[in-house]
Design brief:
single chain, 47 helices, mainly alpha, 67% helix
């Protein structure tokens, strides 16, 4: 047990014990340098000797090398790679430089990380230790953070030690944390007495306790400084702990011979390497291992695992930063020469980095070699590594235009890797060097698309608009694509008036495309804006014309065409076609681990499933979209999915969840300038109040949505729906004139081409306003729905008709309608609506047959996702791959599902239940 850390040690021991019983956990240990983080991790490893232990450490000089930390962590267990899904194994193998790389985004590697941890855990519990996380390369950290957030029943414990930095904290959120503080006076005295070689004079002990402020490393190291005439009690104001320790180690380093310091500097530059790999670099500097022996005797270095390592990261930092700039340059140049001639992309990246740090001048020969390696093609290397190689190539490019083009290539690779902030930074740097107009336009265009993905559509629209006139002169086809991007941002914001005008501009330039298929994104966006607020028949015709190329979209398009196609089918109210398109696209995105695109597609699929009455699937997919959007930094997808989630929770009567997600969406949408998603979430709140019979509150919320919609040239539709709900609220409030005003909006929308769900809603609202003809209007509403899978709309129509018939004294006919509505609401799980229908039925002289909750209501969102995957007939391994979970977690959730669902004990029974639940 560590001195003064009894509670902390007990907490880590509990996590290790939990792993032995199959429970996974993660913990971030935070604190200043020397506070004891490494010792605490060492204690965890000491009590976990029966676990598979994986260890890596961030190294300050290697932070820019993609996946170097992950490669170090998984080096002992690479024999397990053949036990994870093939695509994930390929991505992970390439990232770790163990074999041919594949061009997948960084989340394919993250998914592989999770699968590999799960595969390792099949042989027993696992302890993952990551020390100095603040220096771990961001790609490794993101992969580990992604995996730890999804750990469940694998028996994996992940421990991270880090100094407090905003970047590390954000990447590891929301992993639990443990903050370490200084030892109390009693523990500090105990440690000093235990570690001191000789007893210290009382006044030195008192000074030591005052200066160290409970920092264990300072308490251990400062006595050596006193002994060599270093910092004394009378030397002035207390120094920060980091400075005190730096001075301590620097004092020890400066007493070493020059060759030893040179050898230590080379190792500080190299990072931990096997002895055989270090010897060549040392000999190039006319040094040998014998030169390191004084550092070993001084306790500054040791040999562990076949490699020389520094006793503490602060020693390495002291060696590196304590050297003069000229000595550092010389060390980097020596390492670069040792790597010269390397062919493997990962080795080339190291060569380029060391050469850059050596102060070398621009060199086109070096830049060309790096560019060649980076552009090797999809079978050659990963996107993150390509981005780094292109960026290094730009560093060595002599001319500005060439530098800008290579930075543009780096940004494209970074965007494909899912690193949006890195891509934005590369593009901003490239704009400072671009000399040619076309290059500047390409840079500005990509910068805007990155901003859209980051949730900054307003900024993106302004930037694209400012570039369009230049693009018209240079390349009309590029101008058309830019205008399409502006249209996309205007649709995201909700400004349909502007989107229609911009889309018309882009279509005027569409003939500039030599290949008609290349114009698919521009034409598809035009179809969408026409369907939403223009000539709906023209929009429908154009959509059907594009159905064939839409079925097999090219992922190189700048817009997510499958998602836009799904929105088009929502606008035409062709739910089956939209569901089929999105379901195929989701499957393809899962197969390729294209997580950012998957987040977008799931958000739209969730809306389609809401209208089809597949509410469990809708909730599960919206929840998954939120999680993936947060993982990839795509704020816009988080907002869209939260609004969809709130609407489904509204009809299910989950009031607390609905209000919580509405508030989250509204807050996020305000920060990201996404007012349409805020309006969609507010509409969900209005629908919640309507279902609970709070008509005044419902009207207040829905009036806000109407104001937004009409101000932006929008009417009413399935994506932003408000008119039928507001009209119904007005009817119950006896605000008849206002209800007729809203009905005119519905009539207008229903008249713009065949829109059966909107036409049915208009007929239902007219029946509510004209009780004498209610039955005729309600029957027309049901006829409009025909065989469309929209059960909630049918239920609402039967309920409205039953209400009116009871008030007209036609109790027998009312009971028939109300019983049918109640059965629909019960089957869907629409608790508030079912309660209202039951009350009406009782008033009409009928009795409710309580069917209880629907079978799937008790499942968590994660369990729902697993159930839906299994319901498609996939194996547990396939479900784990698709859902970015481990096999053990899938098995755990499946066990919970069987426990919660009466009479369901086998996969075939679950498939049958899901099929029955999906029926209208």
């Amino acid at each position: 047990m560590l001195v003064g850390r009894t509670a902390e040690c007990a907490r880590l021991a509990d996590l290790v014990d939990g792993a032995r019983t199959g429970h996974s956990a993660a913990l971030v240990v935070r604190g200043e340098a020397g506070i004891g983080k490494t010792s605490l991790l060492g204690y965890a490893e000491s009590v976990a000797r029966d676990l598979t232990r994986l260890h890596t450490q961030g190294i300050e000089t290697e932070r820019e090398l993609p996946y170097v930390g992950l490669a170090d962590l998984f080096r002992p267990v690479t024999d397990h790679l053949d036990r994870i899904p093939e695509r994930q194994a390929a991505a992970l193998t390439g990232a770790l430089a163990l074999g041919p790389a594949v061009a997948q985004d960084r989340f394919a590697v993250a998914a592989g990380t999770l699968s590999l941890l799960g595969a390792i855990s099949e042989s027993g519990p696992v302890l993952v230790v990551v020390d100095d996380t603040q220096w771990l390369d961001p790609y490794s950290l993101d992969a580990l953070a992604f995996a730890t957030r999804r750990l469940g029943r694998e028996g994996v414990v992940a421990l991270f030690a880090t100094r407090d930095t905003d970047e590390t904290a954000s990447r590891l959120a929301p992993v639990e944390s443990l903050s370490l503080h200084g030892l109390d006076a009693g523990a500090a005295r105990e440690l000093v007495a235990e570690e001191a070689g000789e007893p210290l004079p009382p006044h030195d002990v008192q000074w030591l306790l005052s200066e160290a402020r409970g920092n264990p490393l300072a308490l251990v190291e400062l006595p050596a400084l006193i002994a060599h005439g270093g910092h004394r009690p009378d030397s002035g104001a207390p120094l920060p702990i980091g400075d005190i320790l730096a001075r301590t180690f620097h004092s020890a380093i400066t007493r070493l011979p020059d060759p030893t310091r040179d050898a230590m500097l080379l190792l500080a530059v190299l990072g931990p390497r096997p002895l055989a790999g270090t010897e060549r670099v040392l000999s190039a500097h006319e040094l040998t291992y014998a030169d390191l022996e004084p550092a070993e005797r001084a306790g500054l270095m040791t040999v562990e695992g076949g490699a020389y390592i520094f006793r503490h990261p602060l020693v390495r930092s002291g060696v590196y930063h304590g050297a003069t700039a000229v000595r550092r340059w010389r060390a980097h140049r020596t390492v670069a020469r040792a790597l010269q001639g390397a062919r493997a992309p990962a080795a080339l990246e190291r060569y380029a980095w060391h050469l850059s740090e050596s102060g070398a001048d621009p060199d086109e020969e070096v830049a060309a070699a790096l560019t060649k390696a980076a552009s090797g093609g999809p079978a050659s290397l990963t996107f993150p590594l390509a981005a780094r190689l292109y960026a290094h190539a730009a560093r060595f490019t002599p001319d500005d235009e060439g530098k800008a083009l290579r930075l543009l290539a780096a940004a494209r690779a970074a965007q494909a890797a899912g690193s949006l902030d890195e891509a934005a930074d590369l593009l901003d740097r490239a704009l400072d060097h671009a000399a040619h107009e076309r290059t500047r336009l390409d840079l500005r265009q990509l910068r805007c698309y990155v901003d859209i993905q980051r949730g900054r559509p307003a900024r993106a629209r302004e930037q694209l608009r400012s570039a369009v006139d230049e693009a018209r002169r240079v390349d009309p086809a590029l101008a058309a694509v830019m205008l399409g991007g502006i249209t996309l941002t205007e649709l995201a914001i909700g400004d349909l008036t502007a989107a229609r005008a911009t889309s018309a501009e882009s279509m005027q330039l569409a003939d500039a495309f030599g290949d008609a298929s290349a114009a698919l994104p521009v034409r598809l966006l035009h179809a969408l804006v026409e369907l939403l607020g223009g000539n709906a028949e023209d929009g429908r015709a154009l959509l059907h014309e594009l159905e064939k190329p839409l079925a097999v979209p090219d992922l190189s398009f700048p817009y997510p065409v499958s998602g836009v196609g799904g929105l088009c089918y929502l606008a035409t109210e062709e739910l089956d076609q939209g569901h089929a398109l999105l379901d195929r696209a989701v499957h393809a995105a899962r197969s390729s681990s294209t997580v950012g695109l998957l987040a977008h597609l799931l958000g739209t699929l969730s809306v389609v499933e809401f209208w089809r009455g597949e509410w469990n699937a809708s909730l599960a997919h919206a929840d998954e979209s939120v999680r993936l959007g947060e993982d990839t930094g795509r704020v816009i997808e988080v907002c869209r999915a939260l609004a969809a989630q709130a609407r489904t929770e509204a009809v299910l009567g989950r009031e607390a969840d609905c209000r919580s997600h509405e508030a989250q969406c509204r807050s996020l949408a305000a920060a990201a300038e996404l007012p349409m998603d805020a309006a969609r979430a507010r509409g969900a709140l209005g629908l919640l109040e309507l279902g609970l019979g709070r008509y005044e509150d419902a009207a207040t919320h829905l009036e806000e949505v109407r104001a937004f919609s009409l101000a932006n040239g929008r009417g009413d539709g399935l994506y932003l729906s408000w008119a039928a709900d507001l009209a119904e609220a007005y009817v119950h409030l006896h605000r008849t004139d206002e209800a007729y005003e809203v009905l005119r909006v519905l009539d207008h929308e229903a008249g713009r081409g065949r829109r059966p769900i909107t036409a049915a809603a208009a007929a239902r609202c007219r029946g509510m306003l004209e009780p004498a003809y209610a039955e005729r209007h309600m029957d027309r509403a049901l006829a409009e729905l025909g065989d469309i899978q929209a059960p909630f709309e049918r239920g609402r129509t039967d309920f409205a008709c039953g209400e009116l018939l009871r008030r007209l004294g036609r109790r027998s006919e009312a009971r028939r309608r109300l019983q049918r509505a109640l059965a629909t609401f019960d089957r869907l799980g629409a608790a508030g609506w079912a309660g209202r229908a039951a009350a009406e039925l009782h008033a009409a002289g009928g009795d409710r047959i309580d069917s209880g909750p629907t079978p799937l209501d008790g499942l968590t969102p994660q369990e729902l996702r697993v159930a839906l995957a299994v319901g498609r007939g996939v194996t547990n391994h396939e479900a784990a791959e698709q859902l970015f979970l481990s096999v053990k977690t899938v098995e755990f959730h499946l066990g919970n599902i069987y426990r919660k669902l009466d009479g369901v004990h086998r996969r075939a029974q679950l498939v049958r239940l899901l099929s029955e639940s999906a029926r209208p």
